[in-house]
Amino acid sequence: MTKMDLENHFVTDVWMDALRTNKGYPRVDEKRGLGFAPEAWMPLGKEPELREMGEGRIKLMDAAGVDYAVLSLTSPGAEQFEVEVCKKVAKESNDILAAALKKYPTRFGGFASLAPKDPEWSAKELERCVRELGFTGWNTHSNYGDSYIDEKRYWPLLAKVQELDIPIYLHPAVPMIPQLREFGMVLGGPSFGFGTEVMYAFLRMIVRGVFDEFPKLKIIMGHYGEALPFLVDRVDRAYMQKHSTPNPEIGSGSKEWASHYLKKNLWVTTSGNYLPAAFVCSRDGLGMDKLLLGTDFPYESMDDCMSFLAGLPLTDDEQDKLYEANAKAIGF
């Protein structure tokens, strides 16, 4: 059984240079660290681990019991830069990642980085990443600085994703909603804001009708889908109470109730949540076929994640699905 980690992050020099020269946000300040927004800063203490894309990372994988890691450009990715900068960062990061895959084909896989605000360019770059570089998905973020993935300007790119039959890893970023940032990273970051917005981004896709237009889309979310497995029943209350139609300028709403798309189009990983009840809720709410291994390295410890999972009372079949079979079923 191959243990396949679908959330394992990296950085590149071109990404760091873009952060250092960006006039707005996101940006890097040598004293304050990485700034997602004026109110939301975090230290750059994980940069050495993020830069390691060879034997050093593999040594840590071996120690934790991870056989294969699908690497992705770390949050907030490239999408919030000015579009030409975003394209440069995405393409060069994809090329660097491709070199790592070529050198270690049995240990690393890759998620593409794109510039969604140029959907035509991104569709071509995604095709290159999948057909030429051997990547197995697209890693994108919960907001693009001024917009969300559900908006119709991004639908040509979603059409290409469906055509290529690859998953999208929808990763958190600091929320675009200003009230979720006013306490800085303590609430705007991993403990609340990250999860709140990535759930919001997925639910927007439902209400916009994205999954009706592109029914074969496969969305992966970390941290057990934030709280969505807990909300499988609750998200249908608006439909039960006949409040399911959005504002007319948005569209007519979804054809099915929200829970239909949670169960059909959503997969979740194990990253950064070591509460047994969270695993049980995700398994029971979405089904064991929808759970995937993710460690969120280096922000979370691969050792901690793998040790937690090893301590759960899983059957041999559940272990096979979690570590390998479910990932292979969606293209990894």
Just name the CATH architecture: Alpha-Beta Barrel
Largest sheet: 8 strands, parallel
What is the number of independent domains? 1
What is the share of helical residues?
40-55%
Kindly provide the name of the CATH class: Alpha Beta
Query: Total helix count?
Result: 14
Quick overview:
This protein has 14 helices and eleven strands.
Report on this model:
The two termini are 14 Å apart. Strand 7, helix 6 (155-164) and strand 8 form a beta-alpha-beta unit. The radius of gyration is 19 Å and the shape is globular. The protein has a single domain (4-329), classed as Metal-dependent hydrolases (TIM Barrel, Alpha-Beta Barrel). Helix 4 (83-103) runs parallel beside helix 5. The chain has an 8-stranded parallel β-sheet with strand order 1-5-6-7-8-9-10-11. It has a 3-stranded antiparallel β-sheet with strand order 2-3-4. It has helices at 13-21, 47-51, 55-64, 83-103, 119-131, 155-164, 185-188, 193-208, 210-213, 237-240, 258-265, 276-286, 302-310, 316-329; strands spanning 4-10, 27-29, 33-37, 40-42, 68-73, 108-112, 137-141, 168-171, 219-221, 266-269, 291-292. With 332 residues, it is of the alpha/beta class.
Which helices and strands appear, and what pairs or packs with what?
Blueprint: E1 4-10, H1 13-21, E2 27-29, E3 33-37, E4 40-42, H2 47-51, H3 55-64, E5 68-73, H4 83-103, E6 108-112, H5 119-131, E7 137-141, H6 155-164, E8 168-171, H7 185-188, H8 193-208, H9 210-213, E9 219-221, H10 237-240, H11 258-265, E10 266-269, H12 276-286, E11 291-292, H13 302-310, H14 316-329
Parallel strand pairs: 1-5, 5-6, 6-7, 7-8, 8-9, 9-10, 10-11
Antiparallel strand pairs: 2-3, 3-4
Helix pairs in contact: 3-13, 4-5, 5-6
